[in-house]
Amino acid sequence: MAKIGQLLTLVSCILVHHSVVSAVEEEENEGSCSRQFNNHQNITVVAAPGPVGPKGDMGPRGHAGTPGETGVRGAPGKLGPVGPRGERGDKGERGPAGEKGAPGTSPPAPPVVAFSVARTGILTTSQTRVLTYDVILSNVGGAYTEGTGKFVATFGGVFFFTFTGMTANAANSNYYLRLMKNGEKMVSLHENNGAQAQYQAASNSAILMLRPGDQVWVELDKSGRTVFSNVNRYLTFSGFLIHAD
What we know:
- Strands 3, 5, 6, 8, 9 and 11 form a six-stranded antiparallel sheet that branches.
- With 245 residues, the chain is mainly beta.
- Helix 1 (2-17) crosses helix 3.
- Among the domains are: 2-39, no CATH class; 114-244, Jelly Rolls (Sandwich), CATH 2.60.120.40.
- The chain is 11% helix and 32% strand.
């Protein structure tokens, strides 16, 4: 019971001082509380916590730290999906008219080549020969030569040619005409009356690619061939340029 009384006395001293007082501090006070502590140094007393004190003032701001090294740049992200199409904007105002441009240069006019000739007389031959024409209907460009009966191209291009033939009004009258280019046969005409005396006429044509200097003419085959014409001009030879190179 004596120990319990002493313990109660210690608790009272603690409640009065709101803390545990050490034996050293109590030596300055010679009260009963110091004597209780001195006599019971091995007793541990647990007191209730005191009230929370007021918040202290904010301390000074610390010095700014040294910036760290820049990190490695990350890989680019994946391309996102295409967004929805926006609404169509309003039509803008019409701008002012531009300045008038300088007049351009016209391309050179394409060359014109065209000829048409006719024959008025009969021709009978025992050997192959060039058929000549004595009437010049037109010769634009001057590429046809009356004396030789030949057309000579002055430049390259695409040309159209046509020619006609006619038999004499006699039995067994016949002819064989050929359109020639540089000595090579292009197209031909052939008529034969047989036993009946009559006139028979025909025509043929061709489109030829020519180079400068190429020659084109109509040729009558040998072996007694005969072509007929008179002032009515049944035998003709014509040509013109379609497109120049």
